[in-house]
Write a structure and sequence with these properties.
Blueprint: H1 7-13, H2 17-29, E1 43-45, E2 51-53, E3 59-60, H3 75-87, H4 94-101, H5 105-117, E4 130-138, E5 163-170, E6 175-179, H6 185-195, E7 201-205, E8 219-223, E9 231-232, E10 235-236, H7 238-255, H8 263-275, H9 281-289
Parallel strand pairs: 4-7, 7-8
Antiparallel strand pairs: 1-2, 2-3, 4-5, 5-6, 9-10
């Protein structure tokens, strides 16, 4: 596969639609075209980059069954959008993307949403070792709002104007973040149990929801923030808290405001960037396509 190190090289390599189709076919099928309708079927090559599934008689192309299916936009514009959405540390706004590829803001927004939705992965029992857990609250600061829109009792863990999110990060490994309905033990503990393998060490602050962690399954280490302690030996939640700080800066500076309905998609994008931070932009682009 070609390795590009800059946007100039990226655009030079994907100079036309056919170069994008050829690249996508190689990434998706590695030279062995598989029918999305019947993986066991023989496949015939047809004109205009189309294929025919022998067993079902249906035609398809490399877009079929992907986020590109049904889109009137060229793959070249899609590839550029993927490259800049995932490559920019703080993402890119739909307005900026629209100007860059000459589409409407609405179209650019839908493209970003599809890219972010494709990043939703199953990580059941995938975290192990030393795990940091923490919750955060995403929403506007009341003192910056118009007086008519300000709400009372919004400080701390209030859900009046904020959306709760929960995150877990494996030291030296992957991070997972999810929007939750609340931050009670009834909500958070099943997520931990489903994601973190037994025998792992879990670090958290003194929040009461974590007190009933199954001591038979996990070794629980607490950092007492209220007492001014943020690092006690190996115990700390600095990594996950650093991620929350970055997430809030991204939402505030690039997107300005994100509705609770779409917040999970933005969490997916930021988690993906964090989990691929050791990769080059080219490698990250290939990981997404795969």
């Amino acid at each position: 596969m070609f390795s590009f190190k800059s946007i100039d090289q990226f655009l030079d390599y994907f100079k036309d639609e056919q170069s994008c189709i050829d690249y996508w076919e190689e990434v998706r099928w590695q030279g062995d075209v598989i029918s999305p309708y019947d993986p066991t079927s023989k496949v015939y090559r047809c004109k205009n980059n189309m294929y025919k599934c022998k067993n079902t008689g249906k035609y398809f192309n490399v877009r079929t069954g992907t986020i590109f299916e049904g889109s009137k936009l060229s793959l070249r514009k899609w590839f550029y959008a993927i490259y800049v959405v995932l490559g920019n540390k703080k993402g890119i706004s739909s307005c900026q993307l629209a100007r860059s590829i000459n589409v409407t803001q609405k179209t650019a927004w839908k493209m970003i949403q599809k890219i972010q939705m494709a990043l939703n992965v199953d990580i059941t029992q995938s975290l192990e070792g030393e795990i940091e857990v923490d919750e955060a609250y995403i929403g506007g600061v009341e003192r910056f709002k118009h007086s008519k829109k300000k709400k009372k009792n919004t400080k701390g863990r209030s859900l009046v104007s904020k959306t709760p999110v929960f995150g877990m990060v494996q030291r030296g490994g992957f991070l997972f973040a999810v929007v939750v309905s609340d931050t009670t033990a009834k909500t958070l503990l099943p997520i931990i149990s489903n994601t973190v393998r037994p025998g792992s060490i879990i670090y958290s602050d003194e929040y009461k929801a974590y007190r009933s962690l199954d001591e038979q399954r996990y070794d629980h280490g607490i950092v007492y923030h209220k007492k001014g302690a943020y690092v006690i030996g190996r115990r700390s939640t600095n990594t996950i808290e650093g991620f929350w700080g970055h997430l809030k800066r991204v939402l505030k500076s690039t997107h300005h405001w994100v509705s609770p309905k779409h917040l999970q998609k933005y969490l997916n994008a930021e988690s993906f960037r964090y989990n691929t931070k050791h990769l080059s932009d080219c490698e990250r682009f290939d990981v997404f396509l795969q």
